[in-house]
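QA checklist item 7 of 12: single-chain prediction sanity check.
[x] sequence parsed
[x] length recorded as 120
[x] structure emitted
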Amino acid sequence: MKKVRRSRTAPEEAVAQILRELGVRTRRNVRGLPGTPDFANKRRQFAIFVHGCFWHGHTPCRLAKTPTRNREFWESKLAANRARDAAKVQALKAIGFRVLTVWQCELPGVARRRLRSLRS
């Protein structure tokens, strides 16, 4: 797990490309906000998290299959990831931010439509 990237992943780069095409201005990995969102705009008060379906346990997705070996470990790890994600979203909403979560399986089509709402 040490070699798993935390930033500049392929899904994150795809979202960055879509945001550039839409003309949406953001900063990456904003440490001054709760949960360090992948993309954020403090002035317009929105944050975007880009989640890999496996690592964040996207339940209706085929990419989020739990490994059969050491199943208890993986189930508890993924449950902790989901709980941490929910806490991050709650903390951002508490300070007035709109939060958008983009899943790996939504790229590029669905994500483009959802991100378009940030333009206005």
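[x] summary fact logged: The longest strand covers residues 46-51.
[ ] second reviewer sign-off
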